[in-house]
Amino acid sequence: MSTESANNLKDVDAQNVPAPVEVPAPGNDIDVAAQENYFNRELSQLQFNYRVLKQALDTTHPLLNRLMFCCIFSSNMDEFFEIRVAGLRQQIKYGRETLGSDGMMPEQVLGEISRVAHEYIREQYDIINNVLIPEMEQENIHFVRRREWTEAQAEWVRRYFDEEILPVVSPIGLDPSHPFPRLVNKSLNFIVELDGKDAFGRETGMAIVPAPRSLPRLVRLPDDVCNGGDNLVFLSSMIHAHTDELFPGMEVKGCYQFRLTRNADLELEDDLEDLASALRGELLSRRFGDGVRLEVADNCPEELVHFLLREFGLTDRDLYKVHGPVNLTRLMAVGGLVDRQDLTYSGFSPSIPRQIRIKESMFDAIRKRPLLLLHPYENFSPVVDLLRQAAKDPQVLAIRQTLYRTGADSEIVEALMDAARRGKEVTAIIELRARFSEAENLELASRLQEAGVIVVYGVVGYKTHAKMILIVRREEGKLRRYVHLGTGNYHAGNARLYTDYSYMTCDESIGDDVNKLFQQLTGMGKALKIKKLFHSPFTLHTRLLGLVEREAELGPKGRIIFKFNALTERELIKALYRASQAGVQIDLIIRGICCLRPEVPGLSDNIRVRSIIGRFLEHTRVYYFGNDGRTEVYGSSADGMERNLLSRVETAFPIEDPALIARVREDLDTYLADNCQSWVLQPDGSYIQNQPAEGEDRLASQLVLLERLTGK
């Protein structure tokens, strides 16, 4: 990196990143497969979480959105422990340790995760306690602690406890007939020290109080017991204040909150006879998997802490003592409890392209030319309108769609049900194993089936992650296929928060390809020949590698831009290394995990990696190849990960219209020009945040796109 570029970057606190990795010495004989040329997947994911946390300190974001970033960090860390840490522990437990591309064994990775995660979480609580809460106090938003309650507030809390908490709370004394309870994953609990004997003469000395899951963790105090402003109180504070009422006649010597994170990954056999039934059974076990992390109040006595660790089979490495609530994710409720629009992002109206506005029929608009929408800047409603019109159109004969995540009140689902009730052939391929949406998808499948939709659960062993809609319509005595292909889910809520492309076309070859893919998913038989789409697990990986190698053959004339959520697949990384060694200029816009080491002399001199973190979650997947002036651009549902390229059903679709190709390149160039929301990956594995050079204007890519596409 040039001195000028380095001066434009702001360093990340070195103690809060994984230990720097030694950069290979320059040389022409560098082995692209050598372990030192790869970053660890889990540690890279941790660094992404940290970049999210750092947004809480960025005062260009509104205050309540900064709080939201802090909460998102907590949610991300929860899933990281539930899935990634749990997976590493399972490898060790069952003697199935595997060496990562970086050469680290699971035990080594867990040790480094513990070191880094403890640093990050300490910083998170420092941000909450010493930055965000004081700033909210200045804005007259108060988290009222027990010691601060006025007499009127204390009386209101007492009534709330008696009327709302006491009837549903179930304290559990620990004795031979009451063993340690099975606590639900991530639930709020209290360990209580007691003195004295109960009504039966028992003297246990200890009890567990699970906080009722039906109650909010944060409650707004009524204005009539406060002196202005927004005043919030934690459920944990109310339970702390009245714990003695749960144990009448006994002395409560101490009450301390804790929270256990469990393994929440689902393990299903490949030879299932009934996937839905098996999944329903597994969902019950998710709540009670093996413990992987214990969070406990930092004032909890050591003997109680070690008692809990023994009960959950954990060690000090898995212990996180926190100075504040054990579940900061619950602070997401603040936005709904206070009406402070001045402290959040201003709203905007996603635009609708003129091509759609001037046509009453989506079919007419798509026939004129293919459509490309970039959500959330451009409205998701045309996708919904396409299905609604198809449901009512007597010329439409059949609709097929994949569903990965949709949301509880999905207009798309309503349109599919309407189409089925009107007698059209409607098929929905629902991926039951969409992580943490399994229960919702089971319910969705039942609703669709009741309406007459044919529901298929995809292919066991291969998650259906492709985003496809196929509509068959009779026009002038012939059948025409209309297609929607996307980089994101059919979830209207996500479409307001995630950046994703929607591509709509009636191209005959693409329509035929999509039809064949649906045939493969719903029927059985050999893989069919596909003309334009790449699809995993069959052709996507090999075709992607082939396109990278084609650019490598062009040498310095080659050009590659990839936009992924993650890059971990070893063969793709090796191909990119070889392309860089051949002189190809490569820019990778990777939001999260990146195992590729950029800008290493002799290995990846020509590869630059940046991560964009901002108001919206970057989710678009784009493959751009210069091809010596004959540019090829693909949108895709697939990231550069093993699971996407080798063991899922994914699609990559060509964007062939010259105007749309130019539009995608303009979008990519906007990301590459970002000098304040982008973080640049260094050869040693650290990330440095871009900053405008002296005299240079700030260029935040998401704000540029927002203004370009919505005028806001």
What are the key terms here?
single chain; 712 residues; alpha/beta; Methane Monooxygenase Hydroxylase, Chain G, domain 1; Endonuclease, Chain A; eleven-stranded mixed beta sheet; eight-stranded mixed beta sheet; disordered N terminus; transferase
Percent of residues in beta strands?
Answer: 15-25%
CATH class placement of the domain at 534-710: Alpha Beta
Radius of gyration: 27 Å
What is the chains' assembly state? single chain
Arithmetic mean of pLDDT: 90
**Helix/strand-derived class?**
alpha/beta
Give a description of the structure:
With 712 residues, the chain is of the alpha/beta class. Among the domains are: 127 residues, Polyphosphate kinase N-terminal domain (Methane Monooxygenase Hydroxylase, Chain G, domain 1, Up-down Bundle); 161 residues, Endonuclease, Chain A; 177 residues, Endonuclease, Chain A (2-Layer Sandwich), CATH 3.30.870. Helices cover 35% and strands 21% of the residues. It is built from 20 helices and 28 strands. The strands form four sheets. Strands 1, 15, 19, 20, 21, 22, 24, 25, 26, 27 and 28 form an eleven-stranded mixed beta sheet that branches. Strand 12, helix 13 and strand 13 form a beta-alpha-beta unit. Helix 2 packs antiparallel against helix 3, helix 2 packs parallel to helix 4 and helix 16 runs parallel beside helix 17. It starts with a helix and ends with a helix. Keywords: ATP-binding, Kinase, Magnesium, Metal-binding, Nucleotide-binding, Phosphoprotein, Transferase. Belongs to the polyphosphate kinase 1 (PPK1) family. Its EC number is 2.7.4.1.
